[in-house]
Write a structure and sequence with these properties.
By secondary structure, the protein is an alpha+beta fold. 17% of the residues lie in helices and 26% in strands. The protein starts with a helix and ends with a strand.
């Protein structure tokens, strides 16, 4: 094999690897992006439970008149989860398994027996809210879509930009 053919073979292989890896870019984030930007106050009685680890709250466009920027994908809403030491996590409620597998926009629900989990009513996948919204049981393979959060001691800010 000549030097030219070795370089050509390497170049084709490298191009193939780059192409295949770019096709899978953000494969764990199967829910399409929509603009999200809102804040809630821990002084609001509706969100007082978020002062304690392991509690969750459901947010949607009608929550405190927050509007479409709090609606999430397909207006399914957003879950805010209270972690350790006032660390907060925000997840889109759209089940990534049902969306990726069937193009369905199914909102997950907070498990009534364990607020640290969300469950899809269609596919039955359980998502662990304390571990990045990753699937913990069921057929789903992708985590819930995550949004950025910040906390100033009173307000939780949620956005995706």
């Amino acid at each position: 094999m000549t030097l030219f053919s070795k370089i050509s073979f390497f170049s084709i292989g490298l191009a193939l690897v780059i192409t295949l890896s770019s096709c899978n870019k953000d494969k764990n984030d199967v829910i399409p992006d929509v603009q999200v930007s809102f804040s809630i106050s821990l002084n609001d009685p509706q969100f007082a439970d978020l002062n304690f680890f392991g509690n969750s709250a459901l947010i949607n466009r009608t929550t405190n008149n927050l509007g479409r920027l709090a609606a999430g994908f397909d207006e399914n809403g957003i879950i805010i989860f209270s972690g350790v030491d006032y660390e907060f996590f925000a997840y889109d409620r759209t089940c990534p398994h049902d969306y990726e597998a069937n193009g369905l926009s199914i909102p997950v629900n907070i498990d009534p027996n364990n607020s640290m989990n969300a469950i899809c009513p269609k596919c039955g996948t359980n998502y662990s809210l304390s571990v990045g919204g990753t699937p913990s049981k069921g057929i789903g393979r992708y985590p819930l879509k995550n949004y950025r959060t910040s906390f100033d001691g009173l307000r939780i800010y949620v956005s995706n930009y």
